[in-house]
Amino acid sequence: MKISLIDPPVPFGRPPKAPLFLEYLGALTGRVAPDAEIEFFDPQFYPFSVEKIDADLVGICGSRIVTLPWVYRVADALRKRGIRVVLGGFNPTALPEEAKTHADAVVLGEAESVWGEVLLDAKKGKLKPFYQGEPLPLENLPLPIRLNGYKFHSIFTARGCPYQCPFCALTWFYGKTIRYRPIDEVVKEVDALPGNFYWNNDGNIWASNLQRAIDLFTALKGSKKNWLGYGDLRAVQTPVGDKLLKSARESGLISLWLGCDEKFTPEIEKDKVAYAPKLQRRSEEAIKKIKDQGIDIILAAILGKRTDNSENFEKVVELSERLGVIIHPFLLVPYPGTTLYQEYEPFLYHKNWEFYNGSYALFEHPQLSAREREEKFFTTAFKLLSLKRIFKHIFEIPFSVFPNTHLTFLMRELPVRRGMKIAYQRWQNERTKKENCFSSA
């Protein structure tokens, strides 16, 4: 059986990182169907044409909501040619009936427990509409097939998250309980990675089990590879925070993504307002601790919430300057499946997923119009991602981690800035179309 796996392109580009979906599902396919012929497609970086696909079954990742229109168009075109299509990932799981209208089968949840069944049914010509994946222990996983032609590759070491943030899909998709991969298997995979830098795709690199994180970082020390990960400040503020940071840095951590939330710009109930300065001070002290270890920080700032006002946009720029960190801003996206989506659904303007990319206002706001929020967002974004700010930050990164951290920073930030310029141009074009439409009416 011929199987094609496709990772859809994102509208505004991405760093030259191999899609883990292709690499991991390819390896899983090889394990459960060793006689299958597998072909990989990444239209972000390589030419792609529906007409050139020659397969009995096509699997497409639907985990990025902004790519769903592309996914549906390609799936529909493939099915017209008589090729069967399976969709999976966060959004097909959250929107199963919608996804099913564009696919022969939809995998809900994690694929490990059902992928073999999907392929067997496809071989028999008897695909079921839905396959419900179950969370399994993360032991003895197949080593991903590492694709050539990419600067970066990625791994994961755990699934699940106990924090249940209302805007995040990790908890409802993977569960509240964190499942960990055996440390020796993670080390084996890292040692086998090409190159000397990788991304850790875990939602939180230390989560709630800090001793396990320390043990993992200690074991990775011998890999002599640098890496980027996603974390939070809770762990840094614990009694073992210093030990945790030291072991993380020694393992090769050079860049850390953090959420920029109420700890920095508090929105606290009236009876707790006295604690706001203390919370902010503790968070900023934790930021300083991380930077002192030579770990570069990127903050992700979500703007335009229904509780935000125009000052929130300005505070983010001031925060970037005060802390000496790079901030990536996003307008709030209520992702299907999250509790935030349930809360915001009555206020949504539409469900045209191609606009759910973090640069459009998607819901009614009690104070600010959609136009005001979008204009403030782009003004803020270009201040945060100006060339002056980017090159200034080069000198805010400690020289002790030169040149790896500095070069990695530029390779990450310059594509982000370019993507923001593309997003702005698209937004201007959309606005012009609307204005011309109204003027001619």
Question: Would you kindly provide a written description of the structure presented here, covering whatever features stand out?
Answer:
The chain folds into 2 domains: 131 residues, Rossmann fold (3-Layer(aba) Sandwich), CATH 3.40.50; 274 residues, Alpha-Beta Horseshoe (pyruvate-formate lyase- activating enzyme), CATH 3.80.30.20. Helix content is 41%, strand content 15%. It is built from 15 helices and 14 strands. The strands form 3 sheets. A 6-stranded parallel sheet has the order 2-1-3-4-5-6, with helices on both faces. Strands 7-10-11-12-13-14 form a 6-stranded parallel sheet, with helices on both faces. It has a two-stranded antiparallel sheet with strand order 8-9. The longest helix has 37 residues. 39% of the residues are buried.
